[in-house]
């Protein structure tokens, strides 16, 4: 029996169930960084994280009730993707919207939620808590809006090639 393709390869974003949609988040925390929008529409990224973001795990500390604490927190839906220009190029939602697949370090591909950190995709070790940051203008950075340079996944060793010649 052939292996079943994963849901993100067979469904559109609007066809996904809520648990499937939620599982697309790789836990990088980049969307939880503050952004500045200037009068001309220009967008600037900062390395300042929402106070609810755990800077070690890159998970929201109050995800289910986040809007009670941060009323302007965005609840991302498939319909919102057309109007949002600030998702990082590494974001699974953006990648799938653009017709790209999930990257090798995505937990749904790797099977390990830690690969987003070991590959250097997450904000872990790179972000500042908003409670201690001071003016956002002092924290403008470019890396959240760029596709990270990450090593390609190492292919599994070929068991036949690994055998010594007889």
Describe this protein's structure.
This protein has 166 residues and is of the alpha+beta class. The chain has one domain. 22% of the residues lie in helices and 10% in strands. The chain has eight helices and four strands. It has helices at 7-10, 18-23, 66-69, 92-97, 107-110, 115-118, 130-133, 159-162, and strands at residues 33-37, 43-49, 128-129, 140-141. Strands 1, 2, 3 and 4 form a four-stranded mixed β-sheet that branches. A hairpin with a 5-residue loop joins strand 1 (33-37) and strand 2 (43-49). The model is unreliable at 158-166 (pLDDT under 50).
Determine the strand fraction and express it as a percent band. Answer: 5-15%
How many strands appear in the DSSP assignment?
4
Q: List the domain count as a whole number.
A: 1
Taken from the alpha-carbon principal axes, the silhouette is globular
* Average predicted local confidence, pLDDT: 89
Share of helix, binned: 10-25%
Query: Helical element count?
Result: 8
Distance between the termini: 35 Å
Q: Quick one: biggest sheet?
A: 4 strands, mixed
Segments where pLDDT lies below 50 for 5+ residues?
158-166
The SSE order reads: HHEEHHHHEHEH
The class by helix and strand makeup works out as: alpha+beta
* Rounded Rg: 18 Å
Q: Could you write a compact summary of the structure shown?
A:
With 166 residues, this protein is an alpha+beta fold. Helix content is 22%, strand content 10%. The protein has one domain.
């Amino acid at each position: 029996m052939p292996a079943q393709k994963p849901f993100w390869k067979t469904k559109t974003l609007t066809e996904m169930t809520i648990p499937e949609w939620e599982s697309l988040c790789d836990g990088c925390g980049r969307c939880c960084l503050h952004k500045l929008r200037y009068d001309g529409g220009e967008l600037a990224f900062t390395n300042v994280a929402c106070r609810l973001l755990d800077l070690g795990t890159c998970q929201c500390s109050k995800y289910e009730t986040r809007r009670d604490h941060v009323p302007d927190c965005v609840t991302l839906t498939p319909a919102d993707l057309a109007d949002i220009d600030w998702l990082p190029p590494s974001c699974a939602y953006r990648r799938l919207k653009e017709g790209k697949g999930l990257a090798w370090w995505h937990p749904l591909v790797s099977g390990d939620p830690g690969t987003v950190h070991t590959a250097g995709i997450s904000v872990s070790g790179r972000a500042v808590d908003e409670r201690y940051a001071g003016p956002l203008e002092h924290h403008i950075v470019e890396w959240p809006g760029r596709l990270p340079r990450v090593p390609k996944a190492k292919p599994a060793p070929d068991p036949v090639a690994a055998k010594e010649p007889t």
